[in-house]
Amino acid sequence: xxxxxxxxxxxxxxxxxxxxxxxxxxxxxxxxxxxxxxxxxxxxxxxxxxxxxxxxxxxxxxxxxxxxxxxxxxxxxxxxxxxxxxxxxxxxxxxxxxxxxxxxxxxxxxxxxxxxxxxxxxxxxxxxxxxxxxxxxxxxxxxxxxxxxxxxxxxxxxxxxxxxxxxxxxxxxxxxxxxxxxxxxxxxxxxxxxxxxxxxxxxxxxxxxxxxxxxxxxxxxxxxxxxxxxxxxxxxxxxxxxxxxxxxxxxxxxxxxxxxxxxxxxxxxxxxxxxxxxxxxxxxxxxxxxxxxxxxxxxxxxxxxxxxxxxxxxxxxxxxxxxxxxxxxxxxxxxxxxxxxxxxxxxxxxxxxxxxxxxxxxxxxxxxxxxxxxxxxxxxxxxxxxxxxxxxxxxxxxxxxxxxxxxxxxxxxxxxxxxxxxxxxxxxxxxxxxxxxxxxxxxxxxxxxxxxxxxxxxxxxxxxxxxxxxxxxxxxxxxxxxxxxxxxxxxxxxxxxxxxxxxxxxxxxxxxxxxxxxxxxxxxxxxxxxxxxxxxxxxxxxxxxxxxxxxxxxxxxxxxxxxxxxxxxxxxxxxxxxxxxxxxxxxxxxxxxxxxxxxxxxxxxxxxxxxxxxxxxxxxxxxxxxxxxxxxxxxxxxxxxxxxxxxxxxxxxxxxxxxxxxxxxxxxxxxxxxxxxxxxxxxxxxxxxxxxxxxxxxxxxxxxxxxxxxxxxxxxxxxxxx
Amino acid sequence: xxxxxxxxxxxxxxxxxxxxxxxxxxxxxxxxxxxxxxxxxxxxxxxxxxxxxxxxxxxxxxxxxxxxxxxxxxxxxxxxxxxxxxxxxxxxxxxxxxxxxxxxxxxxxxxxxxxxxxxxxxxxxxxxxxxxxxxxxxxxxxxxxxxxxxxxxxx
Lengths: 722, 155
Known about the structure:
The complex is a heterodimer. By secondary structure, chain A is an alpha+beta fold.
């Protein structure tokens, strides 16, 4: 094609940096290619999409596919704006060489941020193409695009012929017309995920599936407790074992490499038996965990204060208070963390399921004192992570091993026990609530105290946040991410007299971001407390909530939820419970109901059915959104009923699926999700919306079924025996 | 230390030189480059690595290559017919979009496939009982149940 030299084209294609992009001045593109591909810049159209040589379109996102279906949703918004079939489009995800720096794939922000950037870029691209067509044909005729063919009056031209291989370095236009708001043919429909087809066929999908010529297998040799020092590795014996290639030691970092994976496991097992470690952190075991946490020094702060809550509480007709507790919970990914790394010619390449390829690169760069531009981090889907799990750690460890064993691809796979014992957990939290009711059963004053560790020790450019960084001498990270702890600590209800106080401690276990952060425990506590207050006010729990809500969209959710659950027939020993929240008080609205049965003899809780009414504004993919809410409800019910990271004096003892049980098929409820689609409103993040209200609905249902208020998680069934 | 083994996988005879103690999972993934069976726990607790061994679902992390003998191994890939069409249960997982991250999908499909072969019309309880050995962390269980029922109604 014109404007390309054959060699340049071949080079670009071979490096995957293919092809045409859109230019700076609409319709005034020059015929020159930039010397290299454009650097990722989120305000430029080219950062988000490219027209490939064959006229297909490549969409680019800095977000990672975590099983939330983000690839499909992002392709949908681009396809809509370009009126192109999704079959003629492809998507590339999180890669420090190719995609914009979008930080972490976290906080239910991928639709709100990445998909909307892609939408605006695609709409801008379309408008630029229209302007180019009108100029080319010297016509003001009505211009359309369909499947890559532009029609301008009587003239037709393909996208690739119009662009003639030119780059268009244009900024994203803010006020560009959006087809999603008018024709809406692709967005708002349940397009099926292409990656599910790949999974069903057994095609390579995950970082675990990467295979390279001559790839070697590594395993980490771990101490029994946090922060233990390696005294003696005794590696002579393991070096005689079949398949042994190399042991890598630096301070307390100890890894082994073998040519075969099973041999690596056997060598690692033997190395673990032979190695001696000393010291390590002692974990608290004397008191119950809630009691222990209360003894910790805190950094306390008033986060929100309005009116005279103290006076209102004293003068209220009914004064009520309660304390709630949520233990440490693990991400417990189904597939333990895994990474592949390769080091050759001063270039380090890492394939990872990390939620943030750029922050991981920054952290590894600072840890290994290696310039960022020599580190290439490629995002590949892994097993669902639900937050910051071992993904970054295993990637950094694989990188370190690759540096000591250059020119070969090194695959490092954590074992189940490593995943369970060394991942950063969602922290334990305590919540204390006080509220007063007036004679009409309305809340007069509200006081909330929460105790929590940090909710993020993500890499963030710091070596100390990586497990291998700590093993090689960086001190453990300091907590203090108050924003995570206080997420949803202020209720979404209209409360004139309120104070919210947070007390941040440094707890005994390694912690970081887990789906919903502090919102999970805060909403659990607030929504169970609202159920208790509704009872004292002698009101239906949904009516009681509606009476305290001002936002009509919130009220619509609860009205619909009441309608959906009105005809539920309950038997003896069964009950129904409700809860509501708006995630982050700014993202999706989510009302949830749960019905349960409580066995009076065993105290066991049977989940019967869970309903949700969710308003996420404009819905991009209804089935994808339903899948997120359904899964969130089931995962949350599992947290509520079963999950608790246990430890003894030396170590975490929840090592596998028997010692850390989660909900299985024998207790899966029927689920029903109703979406309120609002195409005129911005889309709202939903991936974490169900976590808090689902647990509260289950706990409130247990009360309705048994008359017992559960305030500590997970549910202690011995309290439910009559 | 390494020995030669012949193993029948998805109807084809394969030959590998490996440590006799090697669990079948690693042979399938690393030597035969199959992606279906996945490492989940290595303890037989999660169902992620399930394969059909003589038509029975077994965790491939718990079976050593030396104990396979002439038993036939069938993986997720082996459920696809020679013309490329999917088995009813695989298609049902697509139709119901019964996955999020999809890491558990292999085990869910293998277990359900065996249930379909051995049961005429399983009720809810039989489906639950069959699948209780399989872990899913994303919470797609209710979709998996729908997929199994769909596959039954169509087979």
